[in-house]
């Protein structure tokens, strides 16, 4: 996949599949496609299914040794085919200075149709992950430059005795404040990141609907 010309800090670029999904001919007619994003599944069975798939993707399914980002797929006799892309983002507040993420598509029991769609899904997921990684790196570099320019002259009194949250060189003490988990918006430095992700997933779903019909995009009973 060709890299974007931007530095990854802006999430206003089109998806690699957007051109395909918007192509029309003189004999075509328009269909409206609506999608919504929610943090809570409508049905408890859907929540359990998604939770199980997420845990398996992040905890059980592994990439080849030394590979930090890449696509994978697996099947479940009940939930069907799952296609995913695992990747990491730099975060100095996290254990190991990185966080693990996965983009997941649960495509249902029709594994033959699902595997036909896999290259499209992986390509889109790779694009999304690369954009997020570049934005996170740019955000980290910005934070580092701000921190390095804000150093304080060394003091004779130890900062841990005065209760200061920074050491004599002006660097924050990790134990001075409780650092809670950072959200994805904080890592990439864009509060609208989830709206952008919604748009990417919506375009992917729409293109899959056009190419493969509703068998892969309709909710499974």
Could you explain how this protein is built, in words?
A hairpin with a 7-residue loop joins strand 2 and strand 3. A three-stranded antiparallel β-sheet has the order 1-2-3. It is 40% helix and 13% strand. The chain has 221 residues and is of the alpha+beta class. Helix 3 packs antiparallel against helix 6.
Number of strands: 3
Structural class, please? Answer: alpha+beta
Range of strand content: 5-15%
* Radius of gyration from the alpha-carbon trace, in angstroms: 22 Å
Distance between the termini: 36 Å
What spatial order of strands do you see in the largest sheet?
A: 1-2-3
Order of helices and strands: HHEEEHHHH
Q: What is the overall number of helices?
A: 6
Low-confidence stretches: 1-5, 18-26, 152-163
Major pleated sheet: 3 strands, antiparallel
Helix content: 25-40%
Shape: globular
Mean pLDDT, to the nearest integer, reads 76
Give a brief rundown of this model.
The protein is α+β, with helices and mostly antiparallel strands and 221 residues long.
């Amino acid at each position: 996949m060709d890299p974007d010309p931007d530095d990854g800090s802006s999430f206003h670029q089109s998806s690699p599949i957007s051109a395909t999904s918007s192509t029309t001919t003189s004999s075509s007619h328009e269909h409206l496609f609506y999608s919504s994003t929610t943090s809570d599944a409508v049905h408890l069975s859907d929540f359990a299914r998604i939770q199980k798939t997420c845990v398996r993707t992040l905890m059980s399914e592994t990439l080849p040794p030394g590979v930090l980002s890449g696509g994978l797929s697996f099947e479940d006799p009940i939930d069907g085919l799952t296609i995913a892309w695992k990747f990491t983002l730099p975060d100095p507040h996290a254990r190991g200075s990185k966080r693990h993420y996965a983009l997941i598509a649960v495509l249902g029991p029709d594994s033959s149709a699902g595997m036909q769609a896999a290259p499209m899904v992986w390509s889109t997921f790779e694009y999304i992950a690369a954009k997020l990684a570049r934005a996170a790196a740019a955000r980290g570099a910005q934070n580092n430059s701000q921190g390095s320019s804000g150093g304080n002259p060394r003091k004779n009194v130890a900062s841990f005795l005065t209760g200061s949250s920074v050491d004599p060189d002006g660097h924050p003490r990790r134990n001075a404040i409780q650092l809670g988990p950072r959200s994805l918006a904080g890592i990439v430095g864009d509060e609208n990141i989830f709206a952008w992700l919604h748009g990417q997933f919506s375009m992917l779903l729409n293109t899959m609907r056009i190419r493969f019909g509703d068998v892969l995009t309709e909710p499974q009973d």
